[in-house]
Write a structure and sequence with these properties.
The structure is a single chain. By secondary structure, this protein is an all-beta fold. Helix content is 0%, strand content 66%. The chain has no helices and four strands.
């Protein structure tokens, strides 16, 4: 289960967003625009990092939601 108190390392370079945290079970990472539009969904299963491309998106502010799915 994803523990919200676990530190989430977040790196954004060029058009790639990378999250580094221990995902020990299934989780879903969702990325939203500032207006609330869901633009990316990534399923995660026992991974230590996730990379998402936002290459087709304009520069701006995005929100990230991580949910347990197991």
């Amino acid at each position: 289960e994803f523990d919200p108190s676990t530190p989430l390392n977040f790196i954004s370079t060029n058009d790639i967003v990378e999250f580094s945290t221990p995902f020990t079970t299934k989780a879903m990472v969702e990325i939203f625009t500032i207006t609330g539009e869901l633009i990316r969904t990534t399923d995660v299963d026992d991974a230590s990092s996730i990379r998402c491309s936002l290459q087709e998106q304009p520069n701006g502010i995005y929100f990230i939601r991580i949910r347990n799915t197991s």
